[in-house]
Structures are given as structure tokens and as C-alpha cells.
Amino acid sequence: MLLLFSVLMVTWATPASAEDLNVYCELTGRSAMYQDDVLTGWGVEIVQEIMARVGSTNEIEPLPWARAYETVLVTPNTALFSTTRTEEREQHFHWIGPFVRLQWILVARKGSGIVINSLDDAKKVRSIGTYIDDARDRFLLRNGFLNLDRSTSNVLNYRKLNRGRIDLLAATPIGIVETAERAGVDIADLEVVHVIKEMDLYLAINKESDPQTVTAWKAAFAEMQRDGTFAVIFSKWQPGQDIPYDVRLPWRE
Prior knowledge:
This is ABC transporter substrate-binding protein. InterPro entries: Solute-binding_3/MltF_N. Keywords: Signal. Residues 35-237 form the Solute-binding protein family 3/N-terminal domain. Pfam families: SBP_bac_3. By secondary structure, the chain is an alpha/beta fold. The chain has 2 domains: 19-101 and 200-237, 3-Layer(aba) Sandwich (D-Maltodextrin-Binding Protein, domain 2), CATH 3.40.190; 102-198, D-Maltodextrin-Binding Protein, domain 2 (3-Layer(aba) Sandwich). It is 35% helix and 26% strand. It has 9 helices and 10 strands. The chain has helices at 2-13, 42-54, 65-74, 119-122, 135-142, 154-162, 176-182, 211-227, 229-237, and strands spanning 22-25, 33-35, 38-40, 61-62, 78-84, 93-109, 128-131, 148-151, 168-171, 190-206. A hairpin with a 2-residue loop joins strand 2 and strand 3. The protein is globular, with a radius of gyration of 21 Å.
């Protein structure tokens, strides 16, 4: 009993080590994809570098977006990339990034004759394909769109557009070529008719995650920015694009 008590006292007196994060992603475009059965992409490389720096031994797990998002929303010590940072989501996560800045766009079939000069114009078309519960879908819902054709698959949205079942789809330029190809749609048959806005993609960490872990992950990413590693990875996958930065970072004068 004395030995057991001593062991317990040592255990209680030892500071708890930081918890590891279970990291999820969606297979989408070049952020996360398989090449020769190896998970890769610009998002994957950035997160893997953070994990290497903090000593994480977990594997990144691809999941469907809605399942991954709901898991990270309610489960401590979990994270998800690449997640659009919006006002609606701000309070629910810790944020690491930005990884990339991208446009939200409305895409039509080439030659459709659809002209969109504002969001009000977009409300007048018959239907807009969206990906259920992604940031663009939620944004359009909050802005009063009643003409959304919400789908569980981005690939399906491209097929619907190509067959004339929807008039527009909400998308981003990143991954549009790969997704259209998977849908069997020639990208040359599509055109951007409106830019909704620009947004940034981040790694989102559950708000109730271990504070020590969150601090370590944020520090690792900041160090990647300082030592140029982030710029190397970004430029490899996004040549010619401006490297995004968070204007609130205290080290960036």
C-alpha cells in the first residue's frame, strides 16, 4: 500500500505532458490528395511540417468534410484543414494560418448568358449548387439564398452544372481543375461569372483542446514563417501567388 501510494503521489506531482492532436482533412484539390497511395498536397505538407516540429506521431486522416467538421467541432484535441476562417466559426476554434488566400466564385457553363454583378443577381437564377455545410454554403444561406441545390459531393455539383440541372455552382479556383476532371467535365466548358469575396484557409483546432498543445502548434507554424519553410512549401504548390499572412501576427512589423 505504501508503494502504491508513493507511485500515485509521483504521478500526481508530475506535470501532465501536452496531448497530441488527431488531425483530419478532406481530400480536395491539391490541398490533400493521394499520389501513388501517399497522402500529399500543400495543406498536408504544411501540417506535416508542424507535426514534425512538435513531435507529433499521429497520421493525418482523410474524412468527408461534414463528418470531419462536426468531429472537430465537438471533440477536444482534434484539428481540421483546410478550413475557411469565417465570423460564424471564429469563436469555435483555435486558428493556425493562414495557409492560402482564395476567392469564392460562382461558376457557370460557358455560353450560358448568365450575368452576375451582385449577390442579388445570383438570387434570381433558378439554382446554385453548393457543398453542404462548407463555408460558401453557410454564407449563402445566411444571406437569404433560397435557390440553393445543396449536395454532399462537389463532384456531383460539377456534373449537375454540366447537364444543366443547376445554373451556377459556388466554388474556389483552387482545386477546380481536379474536381472538374473527376466529374468528367472539361474545364474549358466552364467560366467564372462572379467573384463573391476573398477568404483565408487555416488549420482549425477544437476550442477545448489542451492549451499546451495549441501553444506548441502555433509556435511551430510561426517559426516556419520566420525561417522560410512555409514560403518554400507555399511556392512549390502555388507558384507565382502572393504568400498570405495574418496581419495580427505580433512578429510581423
